Amino acid sequence: MKNLFVALFLCLGFSLQSQTDQRIYDIIEAVSAERIEKDITTLANFGTRHTLSDTISQTRGIGAARRWIKEEFDEISANCNGCLEVFYQKDLVKKGTNNRIVKDVYVVNVVAIKRGSKYPNRYIIMSGDIDSRVSDPNNYTSDSPGANDNASGMAGTIEAARVLSNYDFDSSIVFVGLSGEEQGLFGGKGLAAYAKKNDWDIVGILNNDMIGNISGVDGVVSNRDFRIFSEPVPPTETEKERNARRFYGGEVDGISRQLARYVHKTTKTYMPEMNPTLIYRLDRFGRGGHHRPFNDAGYAGVRIMESHENYTQQHQDIRVENGIAYGDVLEHVNFEYAKKLTAVNAITLASIAWAPPAPKKVEIGGIVEPAAKFKWSMVDGAVGYKIYWRDTTSPTWDNFKFVRKVDYYTLEGIVIDNYFFGIAAVGANGHESPVTFPNAIFR
Questions:
Q1: Per-residue pLDDT tens over the stretch 150-172
Q2: Is residue 25 situated within a structural domain?
Q3: Does residue 72 carry a pLDDT above 80?
Q4: Which residue of 182, 198, 209, 440 lies most exposed, with the fewest beta carbons within 10 A?
Q5: Structural domain range at position 388
Q6: 8 A C-beta contact, residue 383 and residue 428
Q7: pLDDT above 70: residue 19
Q8: For the residues of 82-99, what is the DSSP string, one character each?
Q9: 341 with 229, same domain?
Q10: C-alpha closest to that of 30 among 152, 129, 133, 161
């Protein structure tokens, strides 16, 4: 039966746009708004999860919160016969590191790995933040429930782990609660360094920061819109790579942008009722999230979040002022919406983890010719490749040609001057890797 499917796939030139992997729909259906509500409520009820808050109490503070998160991951693992590797990853941050670190503190992340069977050292990561804060970033004693920012992202990460623990994958999936975000992105810095030290091959990180609010301060109420933030090119690129872009293009085609497009395409394929928006920016104007430390380390990373924020409910002391209720409390969270964005993450994680790796090297040729030429490194486990192209002004990959197991192809009649190109590897199950933008030239 498997061989018959592969043969049919090859004959038809399988299109992800028409893909109907029933498992993906099952994953969407399995995500529970009720469980997300329960977990957000539990996290909010720890009173404060400020990075510098109590670590001894069993009921209040970040210590209690992270122990509870680990217990949840441990329980999920127990229910799938130990399928998750659960551990703490921590770093000591010294007083005075910045003006928000007013005492020595251990920044502790809670990590759960669903190990892949074929590419165990290839990782796709979903994160939520454990910590919270009020108006004063150094106030670590006042109530700071952080229901949306960011119990929503943390609860979504736990729920995605619950659902995906029921499946086996080729690549590894990491579910992580990151700490120290409000004090300076320290949890992300620590895990990115840990990944470097242990030679993780990271496809990217989906950073979920505020996925529960549908009523914006702009007056818009929507339970379908969400944003995907990504920076255009890696900050680790070389001067040679920067200079090459002047002649070959690629200003909006870095690895994080390709990951963002992957999230967008997967969502539109399987959840067409949702309206993802690609935001061509690292994060909100002048701000940063926990994907940034991974970008800084050379990994792909995006931020997934609500489209319509309400600033009266972020980083605010709980109060009523001029008739306006301030504070990030439970009553402002829409759990059905958090369910939808959790599902967006889960199906993206699954699709990448079921796909072969992306080609590492993609060469392009065809200068002053009426044809675009490509050579690429073959990928183990790929039954074919998709050569994508798009108008230079288009944000998404709009056209493709499926080719079988070859490492060279010419698109006749396509002038390379007028389009951008990329190549993705496709597996026997129809799932494909993120696109690799050309990284070399041949003549």
A1: 999 999 999 999 999 999 999 99
A2: no
A3: yes
A4: 198
A5: 2-16+359-441
A6: yes
A7: no
A8: S-EEEEEEEEEE-TTSST
A9: yes
A10: 161
* 296, 331, 354 - which closes a domain: 354
* Residues 356, 426 contacting (CB under 8 angstroms): yes
Is 24 a member of any domain? no
Kind of pairing, strands 201-208 and 171-178?
unpaired
Give the confidence band of 8 by pLDDT, cuts at 50, 70, 90: very low
Do 379 and 435 contact (CB within 8 A), yes or no? no
Judged by DSSP in three states, 9 sits in helix
Identify any residues that bridge with 110 across adjacent strands, giving them in sequence order. 88, 177
- Is 65 inside any structural domain? yes
Q: What is the mean pLDDT of residues 77-91?
A: 98
What lies within 8 Å, CB to CB, of 360 at 6+ separation is: 377, 436
For the cut 80, the answer to whether the pLDDT of residue 2 exceeds it is no
**Total domains in the fold of the chain:** 2
Task: Locate 106 and state its tokens.
Answer: 């251990």
Alpha carbon distance 288, 309 (integer Å)? 15
- 123/375 Cα distance (integer angstroms): 26
Please report, as a single letter, which amino acid is at residue 431. H
Place of tokens 């399928």: 83
The C-alpha atoms of residue 204 and residue 177 are separated, in whole angstroms, by 16
CA-based torsion, 256, 259, 265, 267: positive or negative: negative
* DSSP state, residue 147: I
Give me the phi and psi of 384, to 5 degrees please.
180, -175
Residue type, 403: V
**349 touches 124 (CB < 8 A):** yes
What does the alpha-carbon distance between residue 44 and residue 37 come to, in Å, rounded to a whole number? 10
Neighbours of 197 (CB within 10 A): 8
* pLDDT level of residue 10 (50, 70, 90 thresholds): very low
CB atoms within 10 A of CB 243: 10
Q: Average pLDDT of 355-368?
A: 97
Q: How many CB atoms lie within 10 A of CB 380?
A: 9
Q: Indicate if 166 and 253 belong to the same structural domain.
A: yes
CA angle 163, 168, 170 (to 5 degrees): 125
Q: Which amino acid is at 74?
A: D
Let me know whether 302 and 393 are in one domain.
no
State the number of CA atoms in the 13 A half-sphere of 52 facing the CB. Answer: 21
